[in-house]
Design goal:
By secondary structure, this protein is of the alpha+beta class. It folds into two domains: about 30 residues; about 180 residues, 3-Layer(aba) Sandwich (Glutaredoxin). It is built from seven helices and nine strands. The chain has a seven-stranded mixed β-sheet, with helices on one face. The chain has a two-stranded antiparallel ribbon with strand order 6-9. Helix 5 links the parallel strand 4 and strand 5.
């Protein structure tokens, strides 16, 4: 049945053209998987002081991205125990850039403006390099961040070297910190020592990020 064969061929060609067309207009960030070993997605964001922070200006430095929401019990486990602040301080002494990101949308749990972010940072004695405000969720969605905390480590060449949980204990209890494997600290130490990161990806745990949609 040559007519049916021809019809199927034409239909397949049209489907292929539509697929290619959709791929061409799809944002590059959506087409490329965010995964260790690949370049970390480039970004520009505004911090709590109103200053623009660009990933392009951070090349040559190791960068830690930490998604946070102060109302999340998993986040409070790490800040209430002081382990997050200690990790921030320890890595700062090694020249690491630590960017805390708040992607909670206006009206959602964890949303803050610049002044509120500064007060929050002071109140919980946090020691990030700065806090990035992401109320529209652009940065969070670019990286595929899904929980608070959700951690990413980028090396000096701009390659993503770690993504996932801050440790291997998916619990909101402070007792779980005892004996926990500190994935972020391990990743940074490996990068600084020019060694492979043993655990480059893990399952993140915590509260869902309160995006606008």
């Amino acid at each position: 049945m040559p007519g049916l064969t021809s019809f199927r061929g034409i239909a397949a060609t049209i489907a292929l053209m539509l697929t290619l067309s959709a791929s061409a207009v799809q944002p590059a960030a959506a087409r490329e998987a965010v995964e260790p070993g690949k370049p970390a997605p480039a970004f520009t964001a505004v911090d709590m002081a109103g200053k623009t922070v660009s990933s392009a200006d951070l090349k040559g430095k190791v960068v830690v991205l930490e998604w946070t929401n102060d109302g999340c019990p998993y986040v409070r486990k790490h800040y209430g125990s002081g382990t997050m602040q200690k990790l921030q301080a320890d890595l700062a002494q090694k020249g690491i850039v630590w960017l805390t990101v708040i992607s909670s949308a206006p009206g959602q749990q964890g949303h803050v403006n610049g002044l509120e972010a500064e007060k929050l940072t002071s109140d919980r004695k946090a020691q990030p390099t700065t806090v990035l405000l992401d109320p529209k969720g652009d940065l969070g969605k670019l990286y595929g961040a899904s929980t608070t905390p959700h951690m990413y480590v980028i090396d000096q060449a701009g390659l993503l070297r770690y993504m996932g949980g801050i440790d291997d204990k998916p619990s909101a209890s402070a007792a779980s910190l005892t004996g926990a494997r500190a994935y972020v600290r391990e990743a940074v130490d490996a990068i600084l020592a020019s060694r492979p990161v043993e655990v480059a990806s893990s399952r993140p745990y915590g509260c869902s990020i309160k995006y606008a949609d």
